[in-house]
Design a protein that fits this description.
Number of strands: 8
CATH class: Alpha Beta
Order of helices and strands: HHHEHEEEHEHEHEHEH
Mean pLDDT: 75
CATH architecture: 3-Layer(aba) Sandwich
Radius of gyration: 20 Å
Distance between the termini: 26 Å
Number of domains: 1
Shape: globular
Strand order of the largest sheet: 4-3-2-5-1-6-7-8
Length: 277
């Protein structure tokens, strides 16, 4: 494990410093958080036309040995949360939990989402929670908020306002951005840089990049006729990149936590060694 910790790159350490509360629910005591298995990632797409590929990300995480679920929230009728995206033989239809306790179209509450996550059986390693822009406070209470923004003026401005609202509620909270419908990696990087610079300059906060999702292919392009899978290749590759970023953060934190535990137990081990001498 010492070799694993020592091999953490400077870039990984810098990224880790920017998301010191990544995956942690700041509103809860740490002891309670450690008892909850699923690590929560609330996700908000600021444009209805740019959907975040929650299901694909859940599958990408699961394929890497970290089971993930998408907690779908229905704001009509029951205002309930339903586990989705991956088959769960233990899930019984109709056993949904209320997220609001108010009915109608009331926004999801942090406690409601936590209760729904706690009821997942078996508990996954990750729980992705799609939220509406109006539920930004709920998102930032749950953990590291991930915003999906389109690479245009309207999309970046909406993401800026959403991040500002999150930090107004919880200064220093972890906020990440995925650029949706990007022309390519270079274009996504330029748009993220523009947004991150505005955030640093005017809000004094830092955004964390969570990659990008390419724009959908032209449905009339001849190449799409060759294979139904060809048109999904770019999206799948991008989603796998996002999954790798999430897992790299998690593994770095796990390594640092284990190293800290080893260091804290060093005096006790020394006393035991002296007693056995």
């Amino acid at each position: 494990m010492k070799n694993r910790v020592a091999s953490t790159s400077a870039a990984s350490r810098e990224r880790l410093e920017k998301i010191s509360h990544h995956f942690l629910t700041a509103a809860e005591p740490r002891r309670r958080q450690e008892a909850v298995s699923p690590l929560t990632i609330p996700i908000i797409s600021v444009s209805p036309e740019a959907a975040f590929p929650h299901d694909r990300l859940a599958r990408a995480l699961a394929s890497r040995g970290r089971p993930a679920r998408v907690l779908e929230i229905s704001r009509e009728l029951q205002n309930s949360a339903l586990p989705a995206s991956l088959p769960d033989p233990t899930h019984q239809p109709g056993a949904a939990l209320s997220l609001t306790g108010k009915g109608g179209t009331a926004p999801a509450t942090p406690d409601g989402v936590r209760d729904a996550i706690g009821a997942l059986n078996p508990a996954p390693a990750f729980c992705l929670v799609p939220l509406k822009a109006s539920e930004v406070v709920t998102g930032v209470e749950l953990g590291c908020l991930l915003i999906g923004a389109e690479p245009n003026r309207e999309g970046l401005l909406a993401a800026y306002r959403l991040a500002k609202a999150a930090w107004a509620h919880r200064p220093g909270a972890s906020v990440g951005v995925t650029i949706l419908n990007a022309r390519d990696r270079t274009s996504a990087a330029l748009h993220f840089k523009k947004l991150a610079e505005a955030v640093t300059r005017f809000l004094g906060e830092e955004l964390v990049s969570f990659g990008f999702i390419p724009e959908p292919p032209d449905p009339y392009a001849a190449v799409d006729l060759l294979s139904d899978e060809r048109q999904d290749t770019g999206v799948n590759r991008a989603v796998e990149g996002i999954a790798n970023l999430i897992l790299a953060d998690l593994e770095a934190m796990e390594a640092e936590a284990e190293a800290a535990q080893v260091e804290a137990e060093a005096p006790l081990r020394a006393l035991r060694a002296a007693g056995n001498a």
